[in-house]
Design goal:
Helix content is 39%, strand content 11%. The protein is α/β, with parallel strands linked by helices. It has an eight-stranded parallel beta barrel with strand order 1-2-3-4-7-8-9-12, surrounded by five helices. A two-stranded antiparallel ribbon has the order 5-6. The longest helix is centred in the middle third of the chain and has 19 residues. The structure holds flavin mononucleotide. Flavin mononucleotide binds next to strand 3, helix 6 and strand 8.
């Protein structure tokens, strides 16, 4: 089967990271992040444009400096359950933390979404970025990397085990014989591992796609290993074309080394296209968007997020950048590289904040043909298998759907109709046969 481009929509309301001024836009309702109709509208447009999935990111820690969308937003599984009832084909991917959930509860909620949506659920497994979130769950400190990623791997294993509790033909519901359940097709997991003890069985059966699709977002060594072991999809940061190509090759190599088919780990990088009638107008709009969001104080505050919501205003901003490496140990190791570079180059806090937020022309900016060219180029040069797209407004999404998508379709680079109506089907992932059914089949064949 030829490789095809995958598109997801990462939905926001009043402005996520880097969109500090979006809430002021007259096109964006001030309650967009908690208005389910705003999400349903986005999902139905994305579905009409034949997108693979509708994607919801999440976190469970805020302070008053966080982006407007983070301050007041809906819980992803609740949100997507409502969206599921207004859509029929598009995949629905919810971000949920493996660090601050228990496997039985989360497996049940995801299985419920998979049933409500008739086989369209996905779980973006995160180990949680905001280290201060631990205090919302009775812990003084965020769990360390090894524990977080060890837990994540076992968590997914347990969830997958629970999702197989019922074989697909477990419910004969035969009124004449008076048999609702065939008890031989119900299985307790009896998991006892390093982090979890879960007996099972789960009280929700499998959906048409067998199990929810596992996504992952994490770029450290531990993050990549988790992805190689368990992820069927990855939400990855883009960076430059060369960085994306290196990441793509690395993940595919790691998956293959574990005996997995590399095509069964679908990488979507984050992208924010800006489309206008001409390249020149789109470039001007890209710059204008930067200026609208260019609020130094908010950007400085957001820089603190990589360091456990660190408040830089306690320093003179013209002081050398402080050594905050210890604050990155648990939250985000990428923050340690930033400290290292800043200190090596002798930069002040102000310089780091300005450099982190300086204008960089977008990679997917231009007239529809230009944006389609860029998306296709990244796909064809193995920088990615697709994109998790972010738009500022519903109008911008509609514009992309009405102008760029048809160009991609005309070129045969994107589907002209849904080839399936499950998330697994859209992503070209195999149907996971229930483990107990597979075992029984194997015993029958070898007997
Ligand atoms: C593209 C991308 C998206 C992410 N989305 C979320 C998210 O929605 N919620 C969250 O808590 N963490 C999110 N994370 C953070 C990861 O779960 C992880 O905690 C963090 O990246 C640190 O781990 P790492 O060093 O392995 O990347 C995201 C990370 C990346 C790279």
């Amino acid at each position: 089967m030829s490789r095809t481009l995958h598109l997801a929509l990462s939905a926001y309301g009043v402005g996520g990271p880097g969109q500090h001024g979006l809430w002021k836009d007259p096109q964006v309702p001030k309650n967009a992040s908690i208005d389910i109709r705003y999400y349903i509208k986005q999902a139905t447009i994305a579905e009409s444009a034949l997108f693979d999935a509708f994607f919801i990111v999440d976190s469970q820690f805020i302070n008053a400096t966080y982006p407007a969308h983070y301050l007041n937003r809906l819980e992803p599984l609740t949100l997507l359950s409502a969206v599921a009832t207004h859509t029929t084909s598009i995949g629905l991917i919810a971000t949920a933390s493996s660090t601050y959930n228990s496997p039985f509860n989360l497996a049940r909620r995801l299985a419920s979404l998979d049933q409500i949506s008739n086989g369209r659920a996905g779980w973006n497994v995160v180990t949680s970025f905001d280290s201060q979130v631990s205090k919302n769950f009775g812990l003084d400190e965020h769990l360390d990397y090894a524990t977080r990623y060890g837990r994540a791997r076992e968590f997914v294993e347990v969830a997958r085990g629970l999702w197989d509790s019922y074989e697909d033909d477990a419910f004969p519901a035969d009124v004449e014989r008076g048999v609702f359940l065939d008890p031989a097709k119900l299985h307790a997991l009896n998991h006892a591992g390093e982090y979890f003890s879960v007996a099972g069985p789960l009280n929700v059966s499998r959906s048409r796609q067998g199990q929810p699709v596992i996504f992952q977002s994490g770029v450290s060594e531990d993050g990549r290993n988790l992805a190689a072991h368990v992820a069927e999809g990855i939400y990855a940061p883009g960076g430059s074309l060369a960085e994306a190509q290196a990441y793509h090759a690395d993940i595919k190599r790691r998956a293959a080394a574990l005996g997995r088919d590399p095509d069964h780990v679908v990488i979507l990088i984050g992208a924010s296209p800006v489309v206008a009638g001409t390249d020149e107008r789109a470039r001007a709009r890209d710059r204008e968007i930067y200026e609208e969001d260019n609020d130094f104080d908010r950007k400085l505050a957001f820089l603190g997020r990589s360091f456990g919501a660190y408040d830089f205003t306690q320093h003179d901003l013209d002081e050398p950048f402080p050594d905050l490496t210890h604050l990155t140990e648990r939250g985000r190791r990428g923050g340690a590289d930033l400290v290292h570079r800043a200190r090596e180059q002798g930069l002040t806090i102000r310089q780091v904040a300005e450099a982190a937020s300086e204008y960089r022309p977008g990679q997917f900016v231009g007239a529809p043909e230009t944006v389609a060219d860029a998306l296709q180029h990244w796909f064809e040069t193995n920088a990615t298998d697709g994109f998790n797209l972010r738009f500022r407004t519903i109008e911008a999404l509609e514009n992309f759907a009405g102008t760029v998508v048809p160009v991609l379709q005309k070129r045969g680079a994107f589907r002209a109709e849904y080839e399936s109506d499950t998330l697994r089907g859209h992503l070209g992932l195999p149907f996971p046969i229930n483990r107990y059914t597979a075992e029984r089949e194997l015993t029958r064949v070898t007997a």
